[in-house]
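Could you join me in thinking about how sequence relates to backbone shape in a protein? To get us started, please write out a protein record for me. Would you write everything just below, so we can both look at the same thing?
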Amino acid sequence: MDLNRVAPELRPYVPKFRVPMESPLLRCLGYGVLLLLPGRTVPGVRFERRDDAGRGVRLFIPEVGKSGGALLWIHGGGLILGHPATDDRFCAEIARDLGIVVASVRYRLAPAHPYPAAIDDCHDAWTWLLRNASTFGIDPSRIAIGGQSAGGGLAAALVQRACDGHPPHPVAQWLLCPMLDDRTAARRDLDAEQHFVWDNRMNLFGWRAYLGKDPGGSSAPPYAVPARRDDVTNLPPAWIGVGDIDLFFEEDGAYATRLMASGVSVTLDVVPGAPHGFWRLGASTKTATAYLGRAREWLGQAIVARP
């Protein structure tokens, strides 16, 4: 992909995060290095690690200004990489700024643990959070589910699974550049584009590892590929944010369109010239801070301002 397609403010950051390796496995491992950024907590937020919640959750609890809401957060990494600790500071800042409890999920990774391991672990964390809501001053009817990249895809799938079960259901779904559709990985015409940060060869590797078969087949197991779900009615409001040069731009827009056509309230935030994960790569830029500001404002309205 031509660097000139990247927004000028973001261009200095993008080349540093390109992984020039021929092997998709090595490229994915290189992407994993990007996720190993030091996590830090922030003043005014208490941290707890709970190993009794499925595979474990990392809790961020505001010490003041508690609103009674919560966010179940799922980290990214292409379904094959990552650790919730890399999002510690991000989660702590959300907890502080919105006065909500944030539970960051740990889940098993493919290919060692293919589907349904990850979605099962996320669902275990969801049910644990509901069961223990009163312990942390959480209103069970005011819990959102969110995630970024592969975590955004797992979040969308978890929302579907949770809404198919008994209430209370998630109040909102907060999806940052979500990885929603395995059929994108099956498109070999996208390989030559070489999208920044996460390209379609890496995407193929991630989906194949998770599904245990080549992606793009005639069907997918329940909750494995959220974009494959036939009925998307009666799901909670969604915020979907993505850059227009992100590999996931088309699939994210298509999912937003389907949700809206089914009567679901959707805010689709498209950032011109933004590659995958730009808000982490160029965190200090006006583009990234404005994007996260809009995302947090929406989340606050969905959780905190809910009647």
Observations:
- The chain has one domain: 3-303.
- The radius of gyration is 18 Å.
- Residues 103 and 200 are 30 Å apart (CA to CA).
